[in-house]
Backbone:
């Protein structure tokens, strides 16, 4: 589902939202109350029929140099609503023995917020945008408990197959030894990427990731 930050940004705009956290906290709280009520009601209908494996929050709360709001503001303005939603979901699971994963998806440099979302119970994160300084090999060492999705530089796909091989050979052996890594592109595949380059990338992932 759309995470709280992305939801607020779509309502208020990326710049006005940052001011609203300070100037209109009552508005932020009212919006998040609505987010929680709607999200919880829709998910509850699904849970009448299925046991969920994952809660995926599409957040986009980071940019090139780190989070767009402080960790303390995340804890104050977003976390209580996330915690209540996840508590409700866990309580409604048909199969109470099934593990529920929490995944946060954000572009940008996310390292500073990983410990914050760990407090929520996050175990999975994506997509680790390389252009923002994310390196899944280093992040995997710093946060050994974290499952990582992404981390392959989309820009390399538009280069040569040799360049693709070099990056695959840098990432896959180290991450295969670590475990907990699904090699995917660190964002959407750019339109300038030749189809054959993409097929080569996928084949090399199969060869080195198995």
Residues:
């Amino acid at each position: 589902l759309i995470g709280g930050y992305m939801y607020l940004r779509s309502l208020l705009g990326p710049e006005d939202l940052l001011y609203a956290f300070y100037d209109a906290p009552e508005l932020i709280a009212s919006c998040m109350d609505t987010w929680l009520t709607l999200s919880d009601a829709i998910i509850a209908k699904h849970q009448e029929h299925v046991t969920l494996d994952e809660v995926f929050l599409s957040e986009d709360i980071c940019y090139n140099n780190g989070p767009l709001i402080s960790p303390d503001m995340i804890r104050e303005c977003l976390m209580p609503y996330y915690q209540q939603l996840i508590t409700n979901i866990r309580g409604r699971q048909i199969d109470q023995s099934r593990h529920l994963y929490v995944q946060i998806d954000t572009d940008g440099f996310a390292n500073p917020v990983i410990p914050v979302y760990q407090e929520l119970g996050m175990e999975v994160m994506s997509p680790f945008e390389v252009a923002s300084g994310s390196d899944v090999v280093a992040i995997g060492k710093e946060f050994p408990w974290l499952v990582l999705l992404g981390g392959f530089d989309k820009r390399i796909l538009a280069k040569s197959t040799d360049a693709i091989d070099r990056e695959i050979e840098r990432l896959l052996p180290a991450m295969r030894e670590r475990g907990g890594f699904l090699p995917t592109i660190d964002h959407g595949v750019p339109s300038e990427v030749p189809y054959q380059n993409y097929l080569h990338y996928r084949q090399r992932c199969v060869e080195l990731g198995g």
The longest helix spans residues 25-47. The mean pLDDT is 96. Strands lie at 54-58, 62-63, 66-67, 101-106, 124-127, 147-152, 181-185.
